[in-house]
Amino acid sequence: MYILAFETSCDDTSVAVMRDKVCISLSTRTQLEHSATGGVVPEVAARSHANAIFPCIDDALWDAGIHLSDIDLIACTDHPGLAPSLLTGLVVAETLALSSGKPMMRIDHIESHIFANFLERKESDIIFPSVVLTVSGGHTELYIWNSLYDLEMIGQTHDDAAGECFDKVSKMLGMGFPGWKKIADLAEKYIGEYEGIFPLVLLYKESLDFSFSGLKSAVKRYIDIQIATPEWLTPEKKIQIAYEFEEVVTDILSKKLMRAAEQKDTKMILLAWGVSANTKLKKKIKTLADIAHVSFLAPTQIIYSMDNAAMVGARAYYEWSSR
Q1: How far is the C-alpha of 46 from the C-alpha of 230, rounded, in Å?
Q2: Which of 317, 314, 311 has the alpha carbon at shortest distance from 113?
């Protein structure tokens, strides 16, 4: 079967064509307008989606070598996300479904990111139960994935998401958006020793929840002190701040994930969503997983960590096939 999938939950307009569970074409246009504001403006994002979605449909169908009449199922992200952005994709998907007489499925955005781990893998590669960490600009959550459609949240952030913290610190340092990428690129230039200048916020011992607002405030206070003495906030100091900050966030995320695996006695852990593309985070988790003899998976490609329509198509395929 052919699935035409849409993803417009935030600032990426994405359309994919799936042949069963395999993505055979993917057209994604990332909005660059938000770099100036250091974050996504919903109204601006919605207008950009409206301009990009039809070219993305044309590109996806062309690359797949099929026509709209060949599509068997239409799928679209339904929630959560920015309401104006979601509405753009839903209106287009529902209109196409109605005009073509094809069935249409509304798909959960968080579940789609988790199902992105199935892309370019066999079903047997994922072992249930497993623990999943979802990390993005709006979400930092831990789930126990008991079976294909049985997800239970076991931990979440009390305040800021990790991705939002990356974005805010990137903005403090005068860099662009998305923050996780800008911070990671800058941190790679650091050649000094880790000094631990920011707090490792792990909450109480057995907690699976997160808190990043205190860390964000600590970074701001540190930067404010540097600004008060201008010669201190040198390019080298910015590099160190990026490095120390990334070290702390990836330590918190990796240790919490391993704590969850230990508490739930699972033999597999998975990573999903935008910050799952962070190389340092994946390396730390892999090291800890190897020590604990736990299997670790993350999306096979960076594009599958980002908002993309292939993950929506994968989630739709598995649900439709189970009916």
Answers
A1: 40
A2: 311
Taking CA atoms, 276 is separated from 13, 86, 285, 306, in Å, by 20, 23, 11, 9
pLDDT, tens digit, 9 for 90 and up, residues 79-101: 999 999 999 999 999 999 999 99
pLDDT of residue 128: 96
For the record, the structure tokens of 140 come out as 């930092």
Nearest to 75 by CA among 323, 310, 321: 310
Q: Distance between CA 38 and CA 60 in Å, rounded?
A: 30
Structural domains for the chain: 2-115+305-321 (3.30.420.40), 122-299 (3.30.420.40)
The C-alpha angle with vertex 228 and arms to 224 and 232, in degrees rounded to 5, equals 90
Residues 6+ positions from 271 with CB-CB distance below 8 Å: 132, 133, 135, 257, 281, 282, 285, 296, 297, 298, 299
151: nearest Cα among 272, 20, 308: 272
pLDDT in tens, 296-316: 999 999 999 999 999 999 999
SS3 55: helix
Q: What is the rounded end-to-end Cα distance, in angstroms, of the chain?
A: 14
pLDDT tens for residues 199-239? 988 877 789 999 999 999 999 999 988 776 656 778 899 99
